[in-house]
Request: fold
Amino acid sequence: MTYEENLLALLESYKAGTIDAKTALEKLHAADYTDLGFAKLDHNRSLRQGFPEVVYCEGKTVEQVAAIMEKLAQVHNNILGTRADADKFAAVQKVLPDAVYHKNSRLIFVERKPLPKDDKRYIAVVTAGTSDLPISEEAALTAEIMGNQVERVYDVGVAGIHRLFDKLDLIRNANVVIVVAGMEGALASVVGGLVERPVIAVPTSVGYGANFQGLSALLGMLNSCSAGVAVVNIDNGFGAGRMASIINHMR
Amino acid sequence: MTYEENLLALLESYKAGTIDAKTALEKLHAADYTDLGFAKLDHNRSLRQGFPEVVYCEGKTVEQVAAIMEKLAQVHNNILGTRADADKFAAVQKVLPDAVYHKNSRLIFVERKPLPKDDKRYIAVVTAGTSDLPISEEAALTAEIMGNQVERVYDVGVAGIHRLFDKLDLIRNANVVIVVAGMEGALASVVGGLVERPVIAVPTSVGYGANFQGLSALLGMLNSCSAGVAVVNIDNGFGAGRMASIINHMR
Amino acid sequence: MTYEENLLALLESYKAGTIDAKTALEKLHAADYTDLGFAKLDHNRSLRQGFPEVVYCEGKTVEQVAAIMEKLAQVHNNILGTRADADKFAAVQKVLPDAVYHKNSRLIFVERKPLPKDDKRYIAVVTAGTSDLPISEEAALTAEIMGNQVERVYDVGVAGIHRLFDKLDLIRNANVVIVVAGMEGALASVVGGLVERPVIAVPTSVGYGANFQGLSALLGMLNSCSAGVAVVNIDNGFGAGRMASIINHMR
Amino acid sequence: MTYEENLLALLESYKAGTIDAKTALEKLHAADYTDLGFAKLDHNRSLRQGFPEVVYCEGKTVEQVAAIMEKLAQVHNNILGTRADADKFAAVQKVLPDAVYHKNSRLIFVERKPLPKDDKRYIAVVTAGTSDLPISEEAALTAEIMGNQVERVYDVGVAGIHRLFDKLDLIRNANVVIVVAGMEGALASVVGGLVERPVIAVPTSVGYGANFQGLSALLGMLNSCSAGVAVVNIDNGFGAGRMASIINHMR
Amino acid sequence: MTYEENLLALLESYKAGTIDAKTALEKLHAADYTDLGFAKLDHNRSLRQGFPEVVYCEGKTVEQVAAIMEKLAQVHNNILGTRADADKFAAVQKVLPDAVYHKNSRLIFVERKPLPKDDKRYIAVVTAGTSDLPISEEAALTAEIMGNQVERVYDVGVAGIHRLFDKLDLIRNANVVIVVAGMEGALASVVGGLVERPVIAVPTSVGYGANFQGLSALLGMLNSCSAGVAVVNIDNGFGAGRMASIINHMR
Amino acid sequence: MTYEENLLALLESYKAGTIDAKTALEKLHAADYTDLGFAKLDHNRSLRQGFPEVVYCEGKTVEQVAAIMEKLAQVHNNILGTRADADKFAAVQKVLPDAVYHKNSRLIFVERKPLPKDDKRYIAVVTAGTSDLPISEEAALTAEIMGNQVERVYDVGVAGIHRLFDKLDLIRNANVVIVVAGMEGALASVVGGLVERPVIAVPTSVGYGANFQGLSALLGMLNSCSAGVAVVNIDNGFGAGRMASIINHMR
Amino acid sequence: MTYEENLLALLESYKAGTIDAKTALEKLHAADYTDLGFAKLDHNRSLRQGFPEVVYCEGKTVEQVAAIMEKLAQVHNNILGTRADADKFAAVQKVLPDAVYHKNSRLIFVERKPLPKDDKRYIAVVTAGTSDLPISEEAALTAEIMGNQVERVYDVGVAGIHRLFDKLDLIRNANVVIVVAGMEGALASVVGGLVERPVIAVPTSVGYGANFQGLSALLGMLNSCSAGVAVVNIDNGFGAGRMASIINHMR
Amino acid sequence: MTYEENLLALLESYKAGTIDAKTALEKLHAADYTDLGFAKLDHNRSLRQGFPEVVYCEGKTVEQVAAIMEKLAQVHNNILGTRADADKFAAVQKVLPDAVYHKNSRLIFVERKPLPKDDKRYIAVVTAGTSDLPISEEAALTAEIMGNQVERVYDVGVAGIHRLFDKLDLIRNANVVIVVAGMEGALASVVGGLVERPVIAVPTSVGYGANFQGLSALLGMLNSCSAGVAVVNIDNGFGAGRMASIINHMR
Reply:
């Protein structure tokens, strides 16, 4: 019984007089989040924001990740784990055999009732170079599990700008655009000047030396001379996918 | 005759056979931008993106700012000048007497045909402290001149969080939320966790010492534990207003 | 015979005339610290400040750590080793079989005469996310071995602020509050605005990208808009536990 | 009628039946804070935390500061304005003639009913050099207006450490110690190793070159090899005074 | 008599037997540089490298600048002073009435025998925005006084990339390209991908907030994904002009 | 059939009437770049710029690198892979047995038709210390595969400056000079003051502590007091070799 | 009566029986330093270290500086004030008419009994450029007032290295060498490789852009590839002069 | 035959007429350094500066280190290798069986004719904590191989300052003092204020979090409020030992 079904049953019981008001409130409260001691699983937020519950796996122990995802799967249909290494996935798979792992993007998917997608609006994920793919896939997969259609436009960095122009219609027709780029991150500014839709820029740590682990792309995107660009953390493909999804679902 | 009217007249002439195709193309191209030598005024972008032409005044001379705005006013109804000091406004006012100056936010407005506003959707501009007002007003005024209704929620920083909760409905009912905060910028994370709409975060340079001219708020917002937050440059109220406007106009 | 008993015996001998003044002074001085060559063990400081002797294990060799802790155990009842890896604990355990290891927090405990605890005053250790647990446990365990009662309030980061409010009474009734948070560290400001007690903030290196190994949380906490917050080093759970213990023992 | 008297009158009216419950609640709520539009004055927090209302003046206009302080003076006996320049004080003085200005520390005081002081416990403010005086005075004056006795120990930096040892008893007998130092900030570590009481360290921007506006002292204090030291923002004398006051009032 | 004429006369005297070898050597050595005490004017380097002697005026006193330029004018035909404010120019003009001042670029010119220019090869100075003009003019004027033809392509930043493409032929036909840009400096990467000639990139401090006085553009340009781009210091228009001139004179 | 031959055949077919204009254009376009999905191989750029196609291997998977280089080898004679580890080379070698690996410089070479070299002009690669050799070899080998003669002048750092002067003629006679140095990078300034040719400076990450992974050399070179020095990214031997090659091929 | 004479008189009185032991000790202690409240003047340190008492004037008020220097002049023959602006000197001159001001170096001198100088050993102050003169003069003047002979070697930066070699004998014969340089600070490494004596390096803030107020020179000098170089703070000419003086007085 | 013997033999041959002037010069030049291609071994510098030839091993290959040290051992009696790992030592030991390895300090010693030591002057190496020992041993061993007597004063950090005072005589009687400290590096300032001899400060990377790999100690030492302190690179024990040795040998 998922969280939503649980809540409905509760309300019905109260309406039917099976439980009194005080009990109903207590149960409602208990349903709100599960306290595992080391973690408080916030079911209500997920419901309220209409997207799968998300688990940030980095810094958690293998055991914690498995316990959290197992518990979540009892009340949610779709779950996403981010920044998970192979060991954590192995532990999750033991308790949730239908979990799927996207190795390069370090995502764990449990997707039992895929969210419906509006096939008329899509998010374009535009990527500077092949080395940025793990992050752009993190963004694209996140957007997809949250119920969005995604078009991938990969390896169109500004060093060979005709590759970008060849794909311009695909980018301009998108409802929201995610730009993923490392090194100097110039792609965000160029795309930002070409489209009329919101651009979510993801700086990546791709590069070396004076890129300072993504600082160069981050500063480049924050200082974009194109208006209509907003930035998420370095290598935060998930955050960009989530942000784009929120915007894409607006009516 | 504004840029739009100019284009229409041109197309009419061609349809009527007054000018031939070659001439029409040349004129269209000439209309595209005005080359002042030191600046190329990009009329087409403004038209395409449906918002007033914007002039970044910092680093330009007084004479350049006045010349650019004067020229723009010949082809556009609404113009915005950002980061303008009083001297630059004085020079603009000489050539454009209907220009208006918002001193604290350093904005110059020429607004001859205000854009229509959808009064059912508004952008909330949520601000941590009174010292952040110049930047939040820059965001709010930018959003307004670009045709958006704006609700201001000021001085609701997290140090006294009940002030924020008193305004929660107003914030949650917004279509897009701009959060403006200096110091540690925590307000962005708190608001991001409370709303289901996109949050555009503007770090400000308010504070001192280890705020490092806004770095603390910038890093805080980039590392927000709440998904659904994207960030613009430090003190970039204009950029946030512009980004929120793009999103707010999406249908 | 512990350091304290040693000192008392010495004073008795002098009073009884068994030793003369010069000998007493020499012995007192010798008791003050033990010089191992590579380390000078400061017994007096420990006595003076009323808490177990603490060994910072990082950067010391396995042999040095074992030798220091063995020597300390000859004159102290309670010893704490911080930032110790498993190899160092293994070496310590050989010479001190009753040593206990808290793996995630990398603490070594020797606790032969636990300090008495005031059960009416407690320190609350409030933690943003599960990934911060190693550091918050370091703080909590440090406070406990130093003779304090501790209440743990875990996974109450600001992204889901109702989890925090559910625990507000527990936090407000604490005598001292430790806040442990990574990423943007906003929890410190929010808690600081809600309580009337001193808040010790511990930034953690949890996060990635523009968190710059904890810099984002550090700057966030230093710039907290809430007064009554003071900060220790990144990931310094021990320092926070120690500081909170000092304050909690004040009368 | 101050805030406290106002609340009491309200409760009396309700008890006497002059007003009904609904009205009482509304009035209570209204009393909670005053909304000036550009600022929300939080009376309750002040009451709850038992110290004068504090106004951070930097970044606010002269008019805003005067309006806020005037309003606060209607409901509070004691008010503190921090980081105020002479112009702002002049404006405040017009509306509050009994306001007092501490020029070097940039503090504005309105102190109508000085808080009682426990003359058995004092806060020691220990300062490295004469150039740090504006910040240490900010700390000391803040602590005093918040009802604490303060002992000033000035110009005892570690370059001439016998000056510090001459004052050691005064420092060791303090209930709480504030250490104010610029340059390398070593005084915090030395004092931290000598006392058994909590040490609040304030890095100052005193110095030049590689002090990077206080970064050197800040990092030095955060990395203090002495436990029992917690740090506030660079030049944040107010924050240290406030933190020390909270601790000093604990029983 | 200029430095070159002086050397020739010396050699002639020696050939004619008017002076002996030892005297010739001594005079040659003396001619090499002039020692003013506070400065050693290096005539030989100028001759060897074939460009006007250059004086970096910042940090020198008004008197020093005037004395140096006056002395240089006795042995050189063309002199360049960089980063000179109006006061320094005024002092120079008193002793060298034919000196010319380019105010925005802070250059002082003494150009008595302009160097010949190859009119078939030119340096393109491509600039992102009008606010970058002081620096791009510094580059262009430096290149011109060093004997190069220069084409200016101004205000073609990537936010409106069609402005750049309109000028592409002019840029592609240049022998060397200088790209001047602030903010994120993306123009360097875009141009670098479009041309086959060496690109000298000049990051400017134009922008605010997270541009950190030009750091964003600097890092962006250093991390350019386009090969064939090399970078000079922030705002170093002179260095770029000088570098481009060296390359442009190669055969 | 290489890219060039392919293009020629296409043009011939069209001239001969074997294919019509539309087909020719489509084929031309298809020849322009190969879209592998995860990468778009830009054949035209390579042709246009007259140097081997270059693959940046870092951040790409082993499979991606092998696939890209295999595909490129079908249309190009000479290919360069940079920053490749041994695993990636092993995979490339399987599909391209004639690939050669320069282990220390992490370069993969496929060189089937070496480009002709002008033996009268050479690039000097001047290196401060033996530890900088991997980077200076990256620069030298890059320049060689791009058709340049290279002279290596190694271990001539400024700590023993007579070693540099012994090689001065070799350096001064070069057409272009690359200076590779870590630590403080002073060699670039010294060489820049001695030669009349363009100097491309490569800061390396050689050093420790306050070199901050190459920052010290980078800043040193950017602030060189010698004009005629331009800088590439830290450890970017490839970029320097490429830049020098462009300049060296200019006529 | 100076400090030294005072002490002698005291000892004589005690020997003669005029004062008893207790009084002697009290007087000795009182002589040790003067407590002005805001400053503790440490006479003993000055005596012990054999150099004039030094007052760091920055951050002190005009009144404090004058009071301190006046008091010091009562017990010391030679006094040095560093980083003093003209206003502070004016105030000092009122109370000490024989005070002398070195404007560019911002030093105040009171030199009543110049220290004897060893004319066989000198300190060489070697300076890169004319813009570094204020700092190198601070170093040279400091060394002179502390009783050292100084040779100035100015404007010998590495961009024209023959100027340095012309002065090599003068530098090599020095007993201690101070190198003052801004920008990339390469001069320290070059000199360090040429001399056998200790080199004290002073980075200056001369330069702009990526010099980051002296950081480039500081890092350059700290990473010097020449052993035998130690570094003081940016622009700390005083510190270098003081350090060189200590070494120069060693026998 | 060592370098010195070699030179003497050469001069004798010339005096005896066995070789002519030209041959003598050529041989002298050849003796000056050995060119291994990847390295130029500078024999003359070593001779001139009177200390063993030093090889910086980091960044060099195992083979290069072994070849360089083998070659050096043919002309020098004493050789020092710094920052060498165990693999490099193993390779050296194969060709130089009498080489000795100091593992913690990563030094390789070949010491065939130990330099004489002045047993009346010693260098004190004062160390804050046991974790700093690898660096302080690097300094002490370097000073010893260069012919100095060394006194080690370990684990006397300022957190327990009485440990330092117990050793004060030993420190004050030193001719030169090296202070090694990590974390906040306060020991340098405290020692600097207590001694009259030059203090060479070595910041170490000991610590974590906001120590930023030694930056905190580095900045602390550069900003020391004690004059007479100069600083070397982070973890540069060798540099400090070398600098102290130069000073200690001065007469």
